[in-house]
TrEMBL record:
<dbReference type="InterPro" id="IPR004045">
    <property type="entry name" value="Glutathione_S-Trfase_N"/>
</dbReference>
<dbReference type="InterPro" id="IPR040079">
    <property type="entry name" value="Glutathione_S-Trfase"/>
</dbReference>
<protein>
    <submittedName>
        <fullName>Glutathione S-transferase family protein</fullName>
    </submittedName>
</protein>
<dbReference type="Pfam" id="PF13410">
    <property type="entry name" value="GST_C_2"/>
</dbReference>
<feature type="domain" description="GST N-terminal">
    <location>
        <begin position="1"/>
        <end position="74"/>
    </location>
</feature>
<dbReference type="Pfam" id="PF13417">
    <property type="entry name" value="GST_N_3"/>
</dbReference>
<dbReference type="InterPro" id="IPR036282">
    <property type="entry name" value="Glutathione-S-Trfase_C_sf"/>
</dbReference>
<dbReference type="InterPro" id="IPR036249">
    <property type="entry name" value="Thioredoxin-like_sf"/>
</dbReference>
<dbReference type="InterPro" id="IPR050983">
    <property type="entry name" value="GST_Omega/HSP26"/>
</dbReference>
Length: 227
């Protein structure tokens, strides 16, 4: 039996849930307190997957593990050149695009409190009281130390616009980012854009690119929770 230890709102946890739904893998989730990730993960980060006692950390490692154990339907292309593209797109989503989600929510004061509320939604009232005042500042500092959060509002927004525009250009003439069909690249990028969409300014940028909106619907139809 597979258990996903998660923070529900984390795009990396969403990525793993979507990969498992696409592959029709039964799983249960265990929501972890923001104070408790160290109990499950040496990096103190979630997601962590437990497959009948085998534990895997990091969404990318988890997707690769799932691909080996549950190869159908595939999320990693067999062709080496396509696999290379899939790998770099996944890493770009996880290590770059993610920080635009953080910057948009926590370097933009008008979004910070609401997003902090999302992060704390499953916490006990005393944890909310303890951490509530600190979460926006901690996340803002995380975005600043990576770099994206130190840019001006205008630059953050125009970077996001350029990135979404690049995805639109990659999708021209094809349903998914790789010609081989839905892959880990689509899921990894989808979850970050879906998080960016939570902020009004992010949603406005995404709405400028109907090709991306249609692609998001396609990815969600294959990986989202059944209606
Ligand atoms: N590279 C990791 C990133 C995971 C990650 O950054 N998770 C965040 C939640 S979005 C986390 O656990 N943060 C807790 C912390 O940094 O203390 C992956 O792909 O799983």
């Amino acid at each position: 039996m597979i258990t996903l230890y998660q923070f529900e709102v984390s795009p990396f946890c969403d990525k793993v849930r979507r990969a498992m739904r696409y592959k029709n893998i039964p799983f249960s989730v265990q929501e972890v307190s923001l104070l408790g990730a160290g109990k499950y993960s040496s990096a103190k980060k979630l997601p962590v997957l437990d497959d009948t006692g085998t534990r895997i950390e990091d969404s990318t490692q988890i997707v690769h593990y799932l691909e080996q154990k549950y190869p159908e339907p595939p999320l990693l292309p067999a062709d080496p050149a396509q696999l290379a593209l899939c790998n770099v797109l996944e890493d770009w989503a996880d290590e770059s695009l993610y920080y635009y989600d953080i910057a948009l929510h926590f370097s933009f004061a008008e979004n910070a409190k609401r997003r902090a509320g999302h992060l704390l939604q499953h916490e006990k009232p005393w944890v909310k009281r303890l951490m509530g005042p600190f979460v926006p500042g901690l996340l803002r500092k995380m975005g600043e130390s990576q770099g994206a959060g130190r840019r001006s509002r205008e630059v953050i927004l125009s970077d996001i616009d350029r990135h979404i525009g690049s995805i639109a250009a990659m999708l021209e003439g094809q349903d998914f980012l790789l010609p081989t069909g839905l892959s880990a690249a689509d899921i990894s990028i989808f979850v970050e854009i879906d998080a960016i969409k939570v902020a009004e300014l992010g949603a406005e940028i995404i709405s400028r690119y109907p090709v991306v909106v249609a692609w998001m619907d396609r990815v969600d139809a294959l990986t989202g929770e059944p209606q």
